[in-house]
Design brief:
homopentamer; about 325 residues; alpha+beta; Beta Polymerase, domain 2; Methane Monooxygenase Hydroxylase, Chain G, domain 1; seven-stranded mixed beta sheet; cell membrane (chains A, B, C, D, E); Mg/Co-transport_prot_CorA (chains A, B, C, D, E)
């Protein structure tokens, strides 16, 4: 599905474009900035666009393959960027990551993706707003896009941070069901890892974009991309903090489990010994020796029960002190 | 809330300033150094200040957002620094970190923060004192500010170090309550991690400030910032040492817990076996066989008890030796 | 076994070559690109080829030794590359890695290997196809070869990723047989490690190949090798993700094992105490004291059994609540 | 306490100096090299020395504060070095580290420390000896000092290495008392960590000193400092080896503790089951059923005991085989 | 013990030299390359050689001290290299490392060692062989020496790799004796660590030797040292792989030990509960209540035993299902 938007960068007005032919025509006007969005395009559509914009076949092939890493690659007349959007999915809790290939030419930007990406609508709004404030042509659009994408990481990350804190609280609440705890922890760790592996290379991409030697951007635009760079750095930092913290939580969990076992065993020790001592006494007075004088005492039985009770209490006191 | 202080750098005298208009006027005098402190400013106040000092909108927006990372960013006519102050909070023990955005111009310094920061008053005192000793204009103020902030890390860090040592002592005191121990350890580790994540990027900021190629500072001022750099390095070093040490403590704890379990089980083994052996004897002599000659001996009962006692003692001796 | 293919790079037609002599002759024609494949060559064959192509003795010796690391080495008139192909073997599951030594001259490429490598046939097809699309001589062949090799990593890697996910599911399925689980996990980890140790140095090789200062390649060819570089980076990244994940799985397993032990012990505690309490009561009423009034009650026995049952139920309720 | 030594670098003769005034006078003679040692100086003494040698106030302040990191800092006319001496303290075993601040001028060296440092006397002897062999002025003194300090690390390190080996032997001796073992291991690890944190930055200092671009030293002197650098590298290497080894020891300990627990439990399993089986038999023959023919057999009792013994032996055999 | 060999690099003929005087004389002839081997030399011998070859006293001192790190140091007219040979010792299994100091002058190479090193004889053979093939003077000798040393690492490493694999097999064989397993694993890990700490710095040395800016070697010689570099890289790589693998083995061992404990406990749980239930029944029918009708039934006893057997079987079935 092809969707396009053209912007006259002098008059700062926008116009929808509905076909590739129209888009090519628009690009012929020197003041026009064009954004072409391809949602789940067929191989043919992609080839056509590639041909129309003189995109390198290798770059077009990259855009049609999934599971690239976030990257930026320089070609003759354009750059190819791969970025990821991230959304939290509720059950089972996992991250839905969508790949977005971006062709950045001098006056056009082409986005290719195989899944619907809500960030793109937001980008459109930001672009129309930003175009009034910022100079520069297609760079404003690229900035609007990347900024929107990275901004959407924060609600996802905040939710994960909350879950990490909740997990830790569960650890000390004394009522954790171990198996689900470990499972949740492992799954959360995986989500942090996933986010880390997106944020890491994207930071490198932004590092390239904010490099002063980059001929694409003027000094002014650099500041904006530095801002996005800063955001992605915060994502990476927070992820690192919580990955470390989750590892500690896992270790702490092991200590607590081992210690619970210890407590259980102490209780067993104490209880068994008390009971077995009493049982031994009962066994002794149940022996069939002929001459066992206490068996014939009137209060023998009462005395026996008392002895048992007293010894039990004494043992319990001793165990309590030892604990 | 706006608070400002101006300093005539020739005559080295200070004067309070109470409004933004006055501040702008003060800045018009070429010898004046101005410090503007904005406590919890509204968006409008911030915009006004931004306009008055020609601050870049992106920088102003950064200052109004929380949760930046410590950083330094160069803009056309000023630098934006983000630094953190740290305070220990007693219960639950955690670190209160306050963000401080600093705009550093040629003759002004603007601090923006949303929480009260006691370090700022101390900074004022140090500035008035330092201005007599050190040459250079706004740099003396910046040095006074950063030095005060970093100096305040040490009492916090020292308290954490003490807690780490106390935790380790608890580990070997033999009387630790495991769950609270693990919880305290985990919380302390988190505090060290938090401090590390502040000290790390701040060190980078100071690295930039002490870089000889930096046109902002003269050779003389460099020495001072190198001193602050050195302090932050010590913070980072100590934090690293104790994070490592806390991990070892966690591991040691697991060994000790496992070993305690082992001891408990050995005790149980010994005690159960002794008791069950005695109970078995009692059971044997409690059997109802017709021909059990010892049951009819006069001293059979006494002998039985003696046998039990002797076997128990023997077993206990054997177990003691085995241990 | 020698197999060779020559390509007239102007007319883009291919021809089989069957002997070394013929190959040398082919190379004399300036438009010819030659691919020589040596499968399990004898020392003599290798020497002959080395002499015919003026290969350095050290490079020839390297090619005849196994267990080199992936590498690229520059010699006077050629490069020596070592690359690895990877295949999954079913039982016992392990990776079969085959070493491929590649001599890259200005107009020839010589591959040496001691095991059959199916990727080579695929390479031949790709070369004949690519030669029509891409300019440049032997570089197209090298690209076809390396691209084929690296592409073959993905099915292997995908299978390993699936196994890693399956292992994790087994962990929480509650029905895992521990010993085989640990064994599988350890073996899988080893396979990831093996793949990592191939992908890491190969990435470095491709880094050299895509270096702009490299005189071997024109700008155009660089793009292609950058694509291969990107693929190998993805392999390395995925491997790192899953090595980390497998470590977490191993840790989680330990927690779960410890916790299962805990549960077992709790059950034992509860069951033993209930039973021993009942046994104690039976022991008490089995004592031979003369005056034990309840023994003579008509419903004494029934009462005794009732008391035992009631106490057992009470204890079970208490234990359930404690859990 | 001020102590000073002057050396005429031409005549190579030494002379004690007793006051600051005398020291200043000595320095006026162009051939004189002066070593000033300040032991636990008052703030005033330090200020006086600072003024007399034109030391930067920041450097003087650094020297009066404790807990600096090992470092080298360049000032206008001198360098400030901070180095540490290390001594082993017996009980509780820990490292006593003493800080030594060193001001290195063109013709003077000032050492400041707050604790007695035996290495300084040794340094004096080495200086007088070295001055005869080596050219160059104050550099010979600095070399003598640093070399002496670093040489003293080796006996301390060797003792720690021995303790690490002894700990490992204890681990497998089968007679370790766990709590003290873990405590010793943790304390030893901390000592290694402390030494590491001294050796690391000191290596960096020596790296600066051996840097060829350093204008302070001639080619000849470089060789000597490279030797010290080499020694400190060996310290750092050995420390890293044993820190790694101690971590493995800790892990191995956990395995052994867990396994001991396992053994204990197996023994308990075997012993309990044997005893409880016997007790069950005794209980059965202690039942009060009217018709239990074996109770009336003449050899019933003997047979019962025999049955118990035989079953016990059989069970023991089975358990031994299972183990 | 002094042993020397001279080689006329033009005529490529070799001659034994028996005294230092002769060696000096030989060196006077411009075409001569001299190899001097000092086995366990006295301080005096070393001094004499040092004087004869104008070696720097610091370098001579280094050569007489043991426990240097592998290194290369440039002096005025020569290089000092320290390398290590490695041999496997059988019982207790450990690595015997021998230090070899190498003075490399323009036309001489002096080796100093305090233990017999079999690699040196091999080196002599290789030198005489290589000298015929390779140009260049003393460099051929150095190459022959280093190549021989590094080649000898491989059999040692291969044996260690085999032991690592054997350890892993023992882990899953189900018949491991834990203590010796852990001890072997720890000892093997230490051996890998030792080898790593030799290979690491030696790689750095070879990095220096293969550096193109090095004036010592011509382009041709570089290729040879690059080959040695490659070998040492393989050693380091393999060591890293197996150190990682041994850590995983240690972790897996802990999981298996914990799980074995779990199994043991489950067996205990099942067995105890079955037996105690039976014992309880026996205890109940052993009570002395007057009115216990079943005691008087003719088949009461048989029924009781049947009940016990049936309940035992039922419980065992339940436990089997639960497992």
């Amino acid at each position: 599905m092809l969707k396009a938007l053209r912007c006259n960068s002098l008059e700062r007005c926008f116009q929808r474009v509905t076909s590739l032919a129209e888009a090519r025509q628009a690009l012929a006007e020197p003041q026009t900035i064009l954004w072409l969005d391809l949602f789940n395009p067929s191989q043919e559509e992609l080839q056509d666009v590639g041909a129309a914009f003189h995109l390198h076949p290798l770059a077009v092939e990259d855009a049609s393959h999934k599971h690239q890493r976030p990257k930026i690659e320089e070609y003759d007349s354009f750059y190819l960027l791969v970025f990821y959007t991230v959304q939290a999915e509720p059950s089972p809790e996992r991250l839905r990551v969508c790949e977005l290939s971006i062709f950045l030419g001098e006056r056009y930007l082409i986005t290719v993706h195989s899944e619907p990406i809500p960030e793109l609508e937001e980008t459109e709004q930001r672009w129309t707003r930003n175009v009034r404030q910022l100079e520069g042509g297609v760079i404003v659009l690229l900035y609007s896009l990347l900024d929107t994408i990275v901004d959407q990481y924060f609600p996802v990350l905040d939710a994960m941070v909350e879950q990490a804190e909740a997990l830790e609280d569960r650890l000390f609440s004394g009522e954790l069901r171990q198996r689900s705890f470990t499972q949740d922890l492992l799954a959360l760790k995986k989500r942090f890892l996933t986010l880390r592996r997106i944020a890491g290379p994207e930071r490198d991409v932004l590092n390239v974009l904010t490099n002063r030697d980059n001929p694409l951007f003027n000094e002014h635009a650099l500041l904006y991309f530095r801002d996005v760079y800063d955001h992605i750095m915060r994502v990476a930092d927070t992820v690192d903090l919580y990955r470390d913290q989750l590892s500690s939580t896992m270790d702490a969990n092991l200590s607590i489990v081992s210690n619970d076992l210890n407590k259980t065993m102490r209780t067993l020790t104490a209880a068994s010994i008390v009971l077995v001592v009493d049982a031994l006494l009962a066994g002794i007075w149940g022996m069939n020796f002929e001459y066992m004088p206490e068996l014939h005492w009137t209060y023998g039985y009462a005395l026996a029960l008392t002895v048992m009770a007293v010894i039990s209490l004494l043992l319990l006191l001793i165990f309590r002190r030892l604990r």
